[in-house]
Protein backbone atom coordinates (compact mmCIF):
# COMPACT_ATOMS: atom_id res chain seq x y z
CA UNK A 1 0.00 0.00 0.00
CA UNK A 2 1.24 3.46 -0.88
CA UNK A 3 -0.16 6.96 -0.83
CA UNK A 4 -1.15 8.20 -4.26
CA UNK A 5 -2.39 11.68 -3.49
CA UNK A 6 -5.83 13.15 -2.95
CA UNK A 7 -8.20 11.38 -5.31
CA UNK A 8 -11.15 10.53 -3.09
CA UNK A 9 -13.55 12.10 -0.66
CA UNK A 10 -15.90 11.04 2.08
CA UNK A 11 -19.53 11.70 1.24
CA UNK A 12 -22.77 11.16 3.13
CA UNK A 13 -20.86 9.77 6.08
CA UNK A 14 -19.60 6.81 4.04
CA UNK A 15 -16.48 5.61 2.30
CA UNK A 16 -15.78 6.17 -1.35
CA UNK A 17 -13.75 3.44 -3.03
CA UNK A 18 -12.27 4.39 -6.36
CA UNK A 19 -11.70 1.43 -8.67
CA UNK A 20 -9.08 2.46 -11.22
CA UNK A 21 -9.34 -0.27 -13.83
CA UNK A 22 -9.56 -1.13 -17.49
CA UNK A 23 -12.65 -2.99 -18.64
CA UNK A 24 -10.48 -5.07 -21.00
CA UNK A 25 -8.30 -6.18 -18.08
CA UNK A 26 -9.37 -9.65 -16.91
CA UNK A 27 -8.08 -9.00 -13.40
CA UNK A 28 -10.37 -5.97 -13.18
CA UNK A 29 -13.40 -8.24 -13.61
CA UNK A 30 -12.02 -10.73 -11.12
CA UNK A 31 -11.12 -7.87 -8.78
CA UNK A 32 -14.66 -6.55 -9.01
CA UNK A 33 -16.03 -9.90 -7.79
CA UNK A 34 -13.52 -10.03 -4.95
CA UNK A 35 -14.31 -6.47 -3.89
CA UNK A 36 -18.02 -7.34 -3.83
CA UNK A 37 -17.29 -10.29 -1.54
CA UNK A 38 -15.23 -8.06 0.75
CA UNK A 39 -18.00 -5.46 0.92
CA UNK A 40 -20.64 -8.11 1.62
CA UNK A 41 -18.94 -8.74 4.97
CA UNK A 42 -17.74 -5.16 5.53
CA UNK A 43 -18.71 -3.88 8.96
CA UNK A 44 -17.50 -0.33 8.55
CA UNK A 45 -19.14 2.78 7.10
CA UNK A 46 -21.38 2.46 4.07
CA UNK A 47 -19.17 2.15 0.99
CA UNK A 48 -19.65 3.51 -2.52
CA UNK A 49 -17.61 2.13 -5.43
CA UNK A 50 -16.76 4.57 -8.20
CA UNK A 51 -15.10 3.38 -11.42
CA UNK A 52 -12.19 5.37 -12.81
CA UNK A 53 -10.49 4.78 -16.19
CA UNK A 54 -7.15 3.10 -16.79
CA UNK A 55 -5.74 1.87 -20.10
CA UNK A 56 -3.63 -1.31 -20.10
CA UNK A 57 -3.35 -1.22 -23.90
CA UNK A 58 -3.51 2.40 -25.10
CA UNK A 59 -2.19 1.30 -28.52
CA UNK A 60 -5.23 -0.90 -29.20
CA UNK A 61 -6.60 0.00 -32.63
CA UNK A 62 -9.86 1.91 -33.01
CA UNK A 63 -11.13 -1.01 -35.09
CA UNK A 64 -10.95 -4.20 -33.02
CA UNK A 65 -8.69 -7.08 -34.03
CA UNK A 66 -9.38 -10.79 -33.33
CA UNK A 67 -7.57 -11.57 -30.09
CA UNK A 68 -6.51 -15.08 -31.14
CA UNK A 69 -4.54 -13.68 -34.04
CA UNK A 70 -2.89 -11.07 -31.83
CA UNK A 71 -1.78 -13.65 -29.25
CA UNK A 72 -0.44 -15.98 -31.93
CA UNK A 73 1.65 -13.28 -33.59
CA UNK A 74 5.27 -13.17 -32.29
CA UNK A 75 6.04 -9.92 -30.51
CA UNK A 76 2.40 -8.83 -30.37
CA UNK A 77 0.04 -8.53 -27.47
CA UNK A 78 2.49 -6.80 -25.15
CA UNK A 79 -0.17 -5.84 -22.60
CA UNK A 80 -1.10 -9.49 -21.92
CA UNK A 81 2.58 -10.45 -21.76
CA UNK A 82 3.47 -7.71 -19.31
CA UNK A 83 0.61 -8.67 -17.00
CA UNK A 84 2.10 -12.15 -16.53
CA UNK A 85 5.88 -12.06 -16.95
CA UNK A 86 7.39 -15.49 -17.53
CA UNK A 87 4.14 -17.02 -18.80
CA UNK A 88 3.14 -17.54 -22.38
CA UNK A 89 -0.14 -15.92 -23.49
CA UNK A 90 -1.83 -19.34 -23.45
CA UNK A 91 -0.54 -20.13 -19.94
CA UNK A 92 -1.68 -16.72 -18.73
CA UNK A 93 -5.14 -17.24 -20.26
CA UNK A 94 -5.44 -20.56 -18.43
CA UNK A 95 -4.39 -19.00 -15.13
CA UNK A 96 -6.87 -16.13 -15.49
CA UNK A 97 -9.66 -18.48 -16.62
CA UNK A 98 -9.20 -20.56 -13.47
CA UNK A 99 -9.38 -17.43 -11.30
CA UNK A 100 -12.49 -16.23 -13.15
CA UNK A 101 -14.21 -19.57 -12.75
CA UNK A 102 -13.46 -19.50 -9.03
CA UNK A 103 -15.26 -16.14 -8.85
CA UNK A 104 -18.30 -17.48 -10.72
CA UNK A 105 -17.62 -15.66 -13.99
CA UNK A 106 -18.56 -17.71 -17.02
CA UNK A 107 -19.33 -20.36 -18.07
CA UNK A 108 -17.38 -19.30 -21.15
CA UNK A 109 -14.32 -17.12 -20.50
CA UNK A 110 -11.94 -15.17 -22.72
CA UNK A 111 -11.91 -12.02 -24.83
CA UNK A 112 -12.37 -12.58 -28.55
CA UNK A 113 -11.24 -9.08 -29.53
CA UNK A 114 -8.35 -6.77 -28.90
CA UNK A 115 -10.56 -3.74 -28.55
CA UNK A 116 -9.95 -0.15 -27.58
CA UNK A 117 -11.59 0.58 -24.24
CA UNK A 118 -11.72 4.36 -24.68
CA UNK A 119 -15.42 4.54 -25.54
CA UNK A 120 -16.31 1.96 -22.92
CA UNK A 121 -14.68 4.23 -20.36
CA UNK A 122 -16.74 7.12 -21.68
CA UNK A 123 -19.86 5.01 -21.22
CA UNK A 124 -18.94 4.22 -17.61
CA UNK A 125 -18.21 7.86 -16.86
CA UNK A 126 -21.52 8.96 -18.37
CA UNK A 127 -23.37 6.30 -16.41
CA UNK A 128 -21.85 7.64 -13.22
CA UNK A 129 -22.87 11.19 -14.11
CA UNK A 130 -26.45 10.19 -14.91
CA UNK A 131 -27.16 7.48 -12.35
CA UNK A 132 -24.42 7.56 -9.77
CA UNK A 133 -22.34 4.66 -8.51
CA UNK A 134 -25.10 1.98 -8.74
CA UNK A 135 -25.73 2.58 -12.45
CA UNK A 136 -22.03 2.89 -13.16
CA UNK A 137 -21.39 -0.44 -11.45
CA UNK A 138 -24.16 -2.11 -13.43
CA UNK A 139 -22.72 -0.79 -16.70
CA UNK A 140 -19.19 -1.89 -15.73
CA UNK A 141 -20.49 -5.41 -15.06
CA UNK A 142 -22.37 -5.49 -18.37
CA UNK A 143 -19.43 -4.19 -20.39
CA UNK A 144 -16.96 -6.68 -18.92
CA UNK A 145 -19.41 -9.55 -19.31
CA UNK A 146 -19.87 -8.58 -22.96
CA UNK A 147 -16.10 -8.53 -23.49
CA UNK A 148 -15.02 -11.61 -21.55
CA UNK A 149 -18.05 -13.91 -21.47
CA UNK A 150 -20.09 -13.02 -24.55
CA UNK A 151 -17.03 -12.41 -26.77
CA UNK A 152 -18.40 -9.11 -28.12
CA UNK A 153 -16.47 -6.17 -29.55
CA UNK A 154 -16.88 -3.44 -26.94
CA UNK A 155 -15.23 -0.83 -29.15
CA UNK A 156 -18.35 -1.00 -31.34
CA UNK A 157 -20.88 1.70 -30.49
CA UNK A 158 -23.84 -0.51 -31.36
CA UNK A 159 -22.58 -3.15 -28.95
CA UNK A 160 -22.06 -0.57 -26.22
CA UNK A 161 -25.52 0.88 -26.81
CA UNK A 162 -27.11 -2.57 -26.37
CA UNK A 163 -25.00 -3.24 -23.30
CA UNK A 164 -26.02 0.10 -21.81
CA UNK A 165 -29.73 -0.55 -22.38
CA UNK A 166 -29.42 -3.96 -20.77
CA UNK A 167 -27.79 -2.36 -17.73
CA UNK A 168 -30.58 0.20 -17.39
CA UNK A 169 -28.81 3.09 -19.09
CA UNK A 170 -31.04 3.53 -22.12
CA UNK A 171 -29.65 6.91 -23.13
CA UNK A 172 -26.04 5.69 -23.05
CA UNK A 173 -25.81 4.94 -26.76
CA UNK A 174 -27.04 8.38 -27.80
CA UNK A 175 -24.67 10.08 -25.37
CA UNK A 176 -21.75 8.10 -26.76
CA UNK A 177 -22.67 9.07 -30.31
CA UNK A 178 -22.67 12.73 -29.28
CA UNK A 179 -19.04 12.53 -28.13
CA UNK A 180 -19.95 13.27 -24.52
CA UNK A 181 -17.47 12.36 -21.80
CA UNK A 182 -14.32 12.42 -23.94
CA UNK A 183 -12.64 15.36 -22.20
CA UNK A 184 -13.61 14.08 -18.76
CA UNK A 185 -12.14 10.63 -19.40
CA UNK A 186 -8.93 12.16 -20.75
CA UNK A 187 -8.59 14.24 -17.59
CA UNK A 188 -9.30 11.28 -15.33
CA UNK A 189 -6.65 9.20 -17.11
CA UNK A 190 -4.16 12.01 -16.54
CA UNK A 191 -5.16 12.37 -12.88
CA UNK A 192 -4.64 8.67 -12.36
CA UNK A 193 -1.23 8.85 -13.99
CA UNK A 194 -0.25 11.92 -11.95
CA UNK A 195 -1.17 10.25 -8.66
CA UNK A 196 0.78 7.09 -9.42
CA UNK A 197 -1.88 4.64 -10.60
CA UNK A 198 0.06 2.16 -12.75
CA UNK A 199 -1.89 -1.09 -12.42
CA UNK A 200 -5.37 -2.37 -13.24
CA UNK A 201 -7.11 -2.76 -10.92
CA UNK A 202 -6.05 -0.32 -8.22
CA UNK A 203 -8.33 0.50 -5.30
CA UNK A 204 -7.93 4.00 -3.85
CA UNK A 205 -9.51 5.04 -0.56
CA UNK A 206 -8.65 8.24 1.32
CA UNK A 207 -5.48 8.65 -0.72
CA UNK A 208 -4.27 5.10 0.00
CA UNK A 209 -3.93 2.47 -2.74
CA UNK A 210 -4.14 -1.30 -3.04
CA UNK A 211 -2.97 -2.74 -6.35
CA UNK A 212 -4.08 -5.92 -8.06
CA UNK A 213 -7.08 -8.23 -7.76
CA UNK A 214 -6.49 -9.10 -4.10
CA UNK A 215 -8.50 -11.71 -2.26
CA UNK A 216 -11.45 -10.48 -0.17
CA UNK A 217 -9.67 -10.65 3.20
CA UNK A 218 -6.77 -8.57 1.90
CA UNK A 219 -9.26 -6.01 0.60
CA UNK A 220 -11.09 -5.93 3.94
CA UNK A 221 -7.81 -5.39 5.80
CA UNK A 222 -6.94 -2.57 3.42
CA UNK A 223 -10.32 -0.89 3.90
CA UNK A 224 -9.94 -0.94 7.68
CA UNK A 225 -6.52 0.70 7.41
CA UNK A 226 -7.60 3.26 4.79
CA UNK A 227 -10.70 4.19 6.80
CA UNK A 228 -8.43 5.47 9.58
CA UNK A 229 -6.48 7.72 7.21
CA UNK A 230 -7.53 11.33 6.82
CA UNK A 231 -6.15 12.85 3.62
CA UNK A 232 -5.07 16.47 3.63
CA UNK A 233 -7.72 18.53 1.88
CA UNK A 234 -6.36 20.94 -0.72
CA UNK A 235 -8.17 23.64 -2.68
CA UNK A 236 -9.12 22.28 -6.09
CA UNK A 237 -6.83 24.75 -7.88
CA UNK A 238 -3.82 23.78 -5.76
CA UNK A 239 -4.49 20.09 -6.30
CA UNK A 240 -4.75 20.60 -10.07
CA UNK A 241 -1.49 22.55 -10.12
CA UNK A 242 0.30 19.81 -8.19
CA UNK A 243 -1.06 17.09 -10.45
CA UNK A 244 0.08 19.02 -13.52
CA UNK A 245 3.52 19.43 -11.98
CA UNK A 246 3.67 15.69 -11.25
CA UNK A 247 2.90 14.94 -14.90
CA UNK A 248 5.59 17.34 -16.07
CA UNK A 249 8.15 15.88 -13.68
CA UNK A 250 7.12 12.42 -14.91
CA UNK A 251 7.86 13.31 -18.52
CA UNK A 252 4.38 14.17 -19.80
CA UNK A 253 4.39 17.90 -20.59
CA UNK A 254 1.37 17.66 -22.90
CA UNK A 255 -0.62 15.96 -20.15
CA UNK A 256 0.49 18.69 -17.76
CA UNK A 257 -0.77 21.34 -20.18
CA UNK A 258 -4.12 19.57 -20.43
CA UNK A 259 -4.59 19.80 -16.67
CA UNK A 260 -3.30 23.37 -16.65
CA UNK A 261 -5.77 24.61 -19.27
CA UNK A 262 -8.57 25.52 -16.81
CA UNK A 263 -6.07 27.22 -14.51
CA UNK A 264 -4.67 29.30 -17.38
CA UNK A 265 -8.21 30.33 -18.27
CA UNK A 266 -9.32 31.18 -14.73
CA UNK A 267 -6.05 32.11 -12.99
CA UNK A 268 -3.92 33.25 -15.91
CA UNK A 269 -2.27 36.01 -13.87
CA UNK A 270 -0.94 33.63 -11.21
CA UNK A 271 2.84 33.46 -11.46
CA UNK A 272 3.06 29.81 -10.42
CA UNK A 273 0.57 28.76 -13.08
CA UNK A 274 2.35 30.75 -15.78
CA UNK A 275 5.78 29.41 -14.83
CA UNK A 276 4.61 25.80 -14.84
CA UNK A 277 2.96 26.34 -18.23
CA UNK A 278 6.18 27.85 -19.56
CA UNK A 279 8.14 24.81 -18.37
CA UNK A 280 5.61 22.49 -20.05
CA UNK A 281 5.76 24.46 -23.29
CA UNK A 282 9.57 24.25 -23.18
CA UNK A 283 9.60 20.50 -22.61
CA UNK A 284 7.01 19.93 -25.34
CA UNK A 285 9.09 21.98 -27.82
CA UNK A 286 6.54 24.80 -28.01
CA UNK A 287 9.42 27.21 -27.79
CA UNK A 288 7.77 30.40 -29.00
CA UNK A 289 5.00 30.10 -26.42
CA UNK A 290 7.57 29.31 -23.71
CA UNK A 291 9.67 32.33 -24.72
CA UNK A 292 6.69 34.68 -24.66
CA UNK A 293 5.64 33.53 -21.19
CA UNK A 294 9.18 33.65 -19.79
CA UNK A 295 9.91 37.12 -21.15
CA UNK A 296 6.80 38.41 -19.39
CA UNK A 297 7.82 36.69 -16.15
CA UNK A 298 11.38 38.06 -16.42
CA UNK A 299 10.08 41.58 -17.01
CA UNK A 300 7.97 41.36 -13.84
CA UNK A 301 10.79 39.91 -11.70
CA UNK A 302 14.25 40.41 -13.27
CA UNK A 303 15.87 38.88 -10.18
CA UNK A 304 14.21 35.48 -10.68
CA UNK A 305 17.28 33.42 -11.52
CA UNK A 306 15.32 30.32 -12.53
CA UNK A 307 13.24 32.27 -15.07
CA UNK A 308 16.45 33.74 -16.50
CA UNK A 309 17.97 30.26 -16.74
CA UNK A 310 14.93 28.75 -18.42
CA UNK A 311 14.64 31.65 -20.85
CA UNK A 312 18.28 31.14 -21.77
CA UNK A 313 17.66 27.43 -22.39
CA UNK A 314 14.64 28.23 -24.57
CA UNK A 315 16.71 30.63 -26.67
CA UNK A 316 19.52 28.08 -26.92
CA UNK A 317 17.17 25.46 -28.33
CA UNK A 318 16.14 27.96 -30.98
CA UNK A 319 19.79 28.44 -31.96
CA UNK A 320 19.89 32.03 -30.64
CA UNK A 321 23.14 31.65 -28.72
CA UNK A 322 24.00 35.34 -28.30
CA UNK A 323 20.63 36.17 -26.73
CA UNK A 324 20.74 32.99 -24.65
CA UNK A 325 24.18 33.76 -23.22
CA UNK A 326 23.04 37.06 -21.73
CA UNK A 327 20.25 35.39 -19.76
CA UNK A 328 22.39 32.42 -18.74
CA UNK A 329 25.08 34.75 -17.37
CA UNK A 330 22.51 36.68 -15.33
CA UNK A 331 21.15 33.38 -13.94
CA UNK A 332 24.65 32.18 -13.00
CA UNK A 333 25.54 35.51 -11.37
CA UNK A 334 22.45 35.31 -9.15
CA UNK A 335 22.73 31.56 -8.48
CA UNK A 336 26.13 29.87 -8.83
CA UNK A 337 24.41 26.49 -9.18
CA UNK A 338 23.25 27.66 -12.62
CA UNK A 339 26.80 28.37 -13.81
UniProtKB/TrEMBL annotation:
Origin, by domain of life? Answer: Bacteria
Q: Entry's Gene3D superfamilies?
A: Glutaredoxin, Tetratricopeptide repeat domain
**CDD domains given in the database record:** DsbA_FrnE
What this protein is called in its record is DSBA-like thioredoxin domain-containing protein
Q: One matching Pfam family, short form? A: DSBA
Instruction: Domain (DSBA-like thioredoxin): give its ranges.
Output: 17-222
Amino acid sequence: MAPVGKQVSISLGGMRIEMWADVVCPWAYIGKRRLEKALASWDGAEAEVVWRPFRIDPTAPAEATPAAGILAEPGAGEAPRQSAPGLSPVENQERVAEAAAAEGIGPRWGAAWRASSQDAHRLLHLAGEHGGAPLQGAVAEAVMRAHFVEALDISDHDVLARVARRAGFAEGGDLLASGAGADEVTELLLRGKATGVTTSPTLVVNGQALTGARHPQAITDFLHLAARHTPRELPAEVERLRLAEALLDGGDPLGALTLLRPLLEEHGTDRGVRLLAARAWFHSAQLRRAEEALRALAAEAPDDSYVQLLLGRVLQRQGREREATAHLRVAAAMNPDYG
